[in-house]
């Protein structure tokens, strides 16, 4: 397994690490190196990635999505850096799942093999946020519309059979549409994209928003997360470990990452843990881990506390459904 540093990807022993490094170009370069290494054995998926990273339309989409989210809304990074960081993370997760014998939906449906899975995951992950350039509201559906011509341009030369190409493309579009859990993804590929998106919570992502004057729980809590490690788990195929310098980072884990594990097919395959580094603030809790839909907190005094994850998106969805008289089971 490879490690990704700050969304970047140096080679170390253990897992893929995401932590904070400064230069934007270096982040993209290191993430790109990790992506190429993961796709080296999959020439069609690698060709798709190379076409995407050089596509002028995709490059413009990333820049404009970032302009709207950061400059107009004061959000964290949603542009090129985020696309490359999450792209590298998604391949690390995919590799761990396939190594553990997990059959994704592209495989289970008979649509394709591992190469098609890697291609769908990298394209879906790197294009998932481009709809933000139109507006944050409805950005998932906007992203589907904007991604279509890019996918057709990239996939056309790679899939001679339009029947198969259209089927593989459907998994990519589904992942883009469901990456923010509105609605929650139904496929493993969609779950990989959602979880990879949720792993980009380190302080490198929040620093620019903070510097631009967006001082809120999102930017502050992002500054409290030093590192995210994606590696092989003991009880499940994937272990995601978050290291914080301050307990404020728990907001990122609880509000951003945990729901993307809990509300997707990845729930069965991912262990999630968070801890404050020893040299951080005065410790109140020593470790947090996800158990089902609860966080289990190990306090410094030796006590253990279980807290249900606050999934605000699900609460809003349930409230709307209740007002419409629709049961949760029927949705």
From TrEMBL:
Entry-linked Gene3D superfamilies: Hypothetical protein af1432
A single MF term (Gene Ontology): hydrolase activity
Chain segments annotated as coiled-coil in the UniProt record: none
Source organism superkingdom: Bacteria
Keywords assigned by UniProt, alphabetized: Hydrolase
The protein's name in its UniProt record: HD supefamily hydrolase
Species this protein is from: Deinococcus gobiensis (strain DSM 21396 / JCM 16679 / CGMCC 1.7299 / I-0)
